[in-house]
Amino acid sequence: MGWTELMPVQRLALPYLFAGRDVMVQSRTGSGKTGAFVLPILDRIDPDLRACQALVLVPTRELARQVEHEASLLAGDSGIRTVAVYGGTAYGPQCDAFARGAHLVVGTPGRILDHLLKRTLDLAKIEMLILDEADRMLSMGFYPDMQRIRGYLPKRRINACLFSATFPLHVVGLSREFLHEPETLSLSKDHVHVTDVVHSVCVVPGTMKDRSLVRLLEVENPSAAIVFCNMKRTVHFVNIVLKRFGWDSDELSSDLTQEHRDRVLQRVRDGKLRVLVATDVAGRGIDIPELSHVFQYEPPIDPESYIHRAGRTGRAGASGRAITLVAKNSIEEVQLKGIAKEFGIEMAETPVPTEEEISDLLDQRITARLEAGYRARGEDDQALLQGLVPLARAFCASEERSVRIALLLDDYHHRDASVPTYPARDDDPKEVARRVSPRLIADVASRDQIQLERLQRLVPLARRLCEIDDEAVLIAMLLDDYDQRPPRLATVRPRPDKSPERPSHGGGPRRGGR
């Protein structure tokens, strides 16, 4: 591999893993953690035993391919067989790899669960379980699948380890389900604990702050977040932008009555509001344990306010992320550097995600939820949905029609994951098409330019799903769901009569209006 020395996470974790101890390791992407768990796995595997002996669960297909490739290189000519398993590809080659006796299986939870349900994968001989990037895995909605996977693990004790960049409460909860009395190892400074806030800065063009914030939200996919702004009018602007991009958001500023503020905050605490946009009136006295992210749309005028803002996350023994957006080549960059120096904060630079990166993440996140929704249906319902597969493919036959399927995917993406789908019915697919087509056409026509722009990035996913036999039924499920929802419940994002005035950025500190 060309390694001349161990990286810090490897020096820290390897003794525990070689000793068979369960550990929770806090380490960021690119820190060398793959080697930290692959080397002990290879040491534990018996090449003569034709069975899965180690399972690594990861959130994305790219990471599955990367981990499997690195494991294959490290295995060399030892006879240890590895395989990457993820959705969006045919089942056949993966089943063949299992039949040949793959020793190390690296996969996404949804596809691993599919193989377990089909009995093409057996975990009876497993010795090691690794949960990699657990915070991202849970943000993509894999928790129910992981709970079901746990039922297929042997009743005996196996060595389990969890790697995560942060340790939010839901990650700590996951560790208790899979790990036995784990040690907690952290690369954060010189101490070992789970309480930590990762501070990041994202430098963007001043006129692209709103779009950049939306992109960061899509990638981070927070369970609950606060977006801090300095001015009340900026709060209002950002809240409208987020709503138009499909986010469930609300605003909080000194203009609101105390009763209204309490009502908004209660929605956040109850998990009924994902994004709160606020001035510093929300920066003090708020205790929301599940708050995973704080976004600062601009650095605070008062440096001490940064600590109060960032301190809204990483509470109650959890950890979180504080991401600050600053306008490129502006006074905001100078302000944030001064804050970091004053309080001794290490700021990691976070690039603005590209549209390609977001499309790929949405592809994987939505597909995982769709597969979970399909598995939740009974066998009779699944059989009935097969009758709608030709209709699903017909809807993706052209670019114009694919946008209509993208609308269903976007609606599904922003819908509460706990909302049940409707049961399938034994209807003639032509009748379903007759009912659904006019509604979809009208629904697409009701969207404004920003909303249509958002739909376009889901078109490739719509067409890809319709091309694969095993996945076209997922589109059929959405069509059936849409067919049975009353038209008045069709989701259309809030659309103001005119675009809000865009606040200026980077022009220096302004006082008042907070």
Q: Please, could you describe this protein's structure?
A:
47% of the residues lie in helices and 13% in strands. The protein is globular. The chain is α/β, with parallel strands linked by helices. The protein has 3 domains: 8-186, P-loop containing nucleotide triphosphate hydrolases (Rossmann fold, 3-Layer(aba) Sandwich), CATH 3.40.50.300; 196-349, Rossmann fold (3-Layer(aba) Sandwich), CATH 3.40.50.300; 355-489, no CATH class. It has helices at residues 8-18, 33-44, 61-75, 92-99, 109-118, 134-139, 143-150, 169-178, 209-220, 232-244, 258-269, 303-310, 331-343, 355-375, 379-386, 389-395, 399-414, 429-445, 449-456, 459-467, 469-484, and strands at 23-26, 54-57, 82-85, 104-107, 128-131, 159-164, 183-186, 196-204, 225-228, 249-252, 275-278, 293-296, 319-327, 348-349. The strands form 2 sheets. Strands 3-4-2-5-6-1-7 form a 7-stranded parallel beta sheet, sandwiched between helices. It has a 7-stranded parallel beta sheet with strand order 10-11-9-12-13-8-14, sandwiched between helices.
Helix content: 40-55%
- Sum up the overall morphology in one term: globular
List segments where confidence is low: pLDDT < 50 over at least 5 consecutive residues: 189-195, 488-497, 507-514
Please state how the strands of the largest beta sheet are arranged side by side.
3-4-2-5-6-1-7
The CATH class name of the largest domain reads Alpha Beta
Average pLDDT across residues? 82
The largest pleated sheet is described as: 7 strands, parallel
CATH topology of the largest domain: Rossmann fold
